Amino acid sequence: MTCLRGKTIVVMGGTTGLGLSAARAFIAAGANVVVVGRSEANVEKAMAELGPAAFGQSGDARDPGTAAAIIDLAVNRFGGFSGLYHVAGGSGRRMGDGPLHEITDEGWDETLRLNLTSVFYSNRAAVRWFREHSVSGSVLNCGSVLGLSPAAQHFGTHAYAAAKSALIGFTRSCAATYAKEHIRFNVVAPALVATPMSARAQTDEVILNYARAKQPLASDGIGDPADVDGIAVYFMSDAARGVTGQVFAVDWGWGVSESG
User: Fold this and answer.
1) What is the DSSP letter of 17?
2) Which pTM does this prediction carry?
3) Backbone phi and psi for residue 216, each to the nearest 5 degrees, phi listed first
4) Can you give the residue ranges of every domain in the chain?
5) Counting Cβ atoms within 10 Å, is residue 53 exposed (0-12), middle (13-18) or buried (19+)?
6) CA 177, 37, 64: angle at the middle one, nearest 5?
């Protein structure tokens, strides 16, 4: 498959989990990829695995200058910039996120900063570059099924859910504004998937039993990151040139299944 040949894609949060899995898939489809992560060690591991079609750079997506600098790096390294996949984010539980009556002010602020403000920064940098150079492009933001279908018993982190819900409205608004310039914005919304972020759930038998009923298409209740790669490749490819403002759930049956 070479549907991404000639494209250069920036993956914010591309050194582990869903982002790294997507980077592999983008390269397999012919793209050059620049991956960004906060850990230098993870950047080095990703570069060693991904090979010459990839370049890695450490950076914090919460920094307003990171994405713009990475896009410039991609252009200098590979000669262009075609698409942005924003995966960077994570649970705010350790920062004070939780049910509404328990969320701390810091937990609210930091969870939104990690999962929503970072998206604003990267998307703004991408659309500014596309418009400045008068080229079409694709932006894909990684949401969560929890922005669409709550699971209060085991995943009652309301700041995180708020951020992922807001991400949908933000992305669709951007899609409406920039469609006339052939700049596309979409969301992929995975359910419970095997990434470092879900380590707590992967070792909790009660949550696993819940997931087995809620995600019957997943192996032992936990989704495989590779299952999300196909839709990420599609949205980055010219096959999706007519698609914008969409929210695509890869949820292994979550949205249509009863809880355990």
Assistant:
1) H
2) 0.95
3) -65, -20
4) 8-251
5) middle
6) 45
- Known catalytic residues are 160
Nearest by Cα to 25 from 48, 45, 54:
54
Tell me how far apart the 2 most distant CA atoms of the chain are, in Å: 52
pLDDT tens string for the chain (260 positions)? 689 999 999 999 999 999 999 999 999 999 999 999 999 999 999 999 999 999 999 999 999 999 999 999 999 999 999 999 999 999 999 999 999 999 999 999 999 999 999 999 999 999 999 999 999 999 999 999 999 998 888 888 999 999 999 999 999 999 999 999 999 999 999 998 987 766 676 777 888 888 899 999 998 889 899 999 999 999 999 999 999 999 999 999 999 987 65
Cβ-contact 198, 153 below 8 angstroms: no
CA distance 110 to 104: 10
Which of 50, 62, 68 lies closest to 10, judged by CA? 68
For the domain with range 8-251, which CATH number is right: 3.40.630.30, 3.20.20.70, 3.30.565.10, 3.40.50.720?
A: 3.40.50.720
CA–CA gap between residue 220 and residue 213 (Å, rounded)? 10
d(CA 166, CA 163): 5
**Closest alpha carbon to 126 in 166, 85, 186:** 85
Distance in Å from the first CA to the final CA of the chain: 39
- Rounded Cα distance, 38 and 18, in Å: 15
Q: Assess contact for 202 and 222: CB atoms under 8 A.
A: yes
